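for the recovery benchmark. tokens below, seq after
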């Protein structure tokens, strides 16, 4: 079985790596990855990215898996053998599946959006992965010493939150949920930025010996 671009260039999918075009015009970097489904997963990230993903093989036609492209907020795409997605570039891939003993799905991922499959017995879909439509900020949030301060409220539309401990801060702060404490939460040193994909409220615990102003920005739909 072969993959071909719409310009007539052929890419065999049997071997992983750089597939040279038939006429020497472009290259397609192809990754082949088999995912075992024996154990349940919930939005586990896999190091895969491209513009094309195809479930070209599976243990059987009942093996299935949910795939989230770019982030965990986008609606999942349910893959079984033969499913193919082409569209906007994705840089992150998250997987959810039930425990399916002895089953697997093998994916072909390619970074060339022109690649297609000469496989007429299987269906294909073209999609566009959505990007955040808003990039926003607020005035620096004042965080008193010896206390936890909410720096970002809950927001179901938010995709990514960025929090920066200023270079003038007297020391590290902690980032977490409402339970963040002097010995609980992610450590953020002066001048460091913490980014998190969450719709929940986020708090800073400040024990630097003085008040500090935390910079906050985010993206959302």
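predicted aa per position
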């Amino acid at each position: 079985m072969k993959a071909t671009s719409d310009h007539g260039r052929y890419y065999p999918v049997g071997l992983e790596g750089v597939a040279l075009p038939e006429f020497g015009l472009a290259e397609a970097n192809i990754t082949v990855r088999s995912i075992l489904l024996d154990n349940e997963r919930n939005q586990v990230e896999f190091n895969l990215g491209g513009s094309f993903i195809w479930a070209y093989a599976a243990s059987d036609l009942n093996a299935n898996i949910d795939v989230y492209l770019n982030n965990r907020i986008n609606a999942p795409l349910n893959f079984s053998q033969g499913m193919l997605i082409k569209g906007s570039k994705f840089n992150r891939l998250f997987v959810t599946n039930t425990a399916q003993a002895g089953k697997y799905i093998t994916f072909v991922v390619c970074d060339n959006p022109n690649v297609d499959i000469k496989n007429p017995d299987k269906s294909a879909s073209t999609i566009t992965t959505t990007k955040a439509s808003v990039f926003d900020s607020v005035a620096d949030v004042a965080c008193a010493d010896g206390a936890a301060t909410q720096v970002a409220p809950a927001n179901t539309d938010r995709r990514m939150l960025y929090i920066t401990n200023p270079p003038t801060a007297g020391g590290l702060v902690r980032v977490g949920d409402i339970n963040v404490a002097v010995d609980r939460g992610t450590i953020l040193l002066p001048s460091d930025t913490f980014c998190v994909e969450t719709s929940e409220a986020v708090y800073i615990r400040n024990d630097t010996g003085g008040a500090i102003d935390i910079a906050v920005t985010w993206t959302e739909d």
